[in-house]
Amino acid sequence: xxxxxxxxxxxxxxxxxxxxxxxxxxxxxxxxxxxxxxxxxxxxxxxxxxxxxxxxxxxxxxxxxxxxxxxxxxxxxxxxxxxxxxxxxxxxxxxxxxxxxxxxxxxxxxxxxxxxxxxxxxxxxxxxxxxxxxxxxxxxxxxxxxxxxxxxxxxxxxx
Length: 159
Ligand code: MG
Hints:
By secondary structure, the chain is an alpha+beta fold. The chain is 30% helix and 31% strand. The protein has helices at 41-53, 59-62, 75-88, 111-122, 140-143; strands at 2-16, 21-22, 25-26, 31-33, 92-101, 129-134, 147-158. Helix 1 runs parallel beside helix 3 (75-88). The radius of gyration is 15 Å and the shape is globular.
């Protein structure tokens, strides 16, 4: 059995009046992520973890932000493309673990919906999809509510 691990990390700035979309779920808030796409920082980290496991570069290489066709795109669609690539290489996703760091709002009420959305696109059981949220205790850009960061780790297996 061939086992691959991948890590992803992403950051987006926050600005007033934009939509906040995390793991495909729109979160009611006064600020949202500044981005060429819908700014789903968590999905971007997950995409990079999948690509990283197979040493295929990153989503910036796959979906350049200079390309107008990705303007405002639903990041779940980008994730689907990445998953198709992973499958085409013969790998299955074993599990995904993602952590989102932002000071406000509280993400806990949305976590299970995020996990369910991701599990549908990832094609794995929800108990293999972990989404966690943390504040940074008011420290750094996340703590000052200037931005959001997300990390993700993915395990892929090929029989
Ligand atoms: Mg991004």
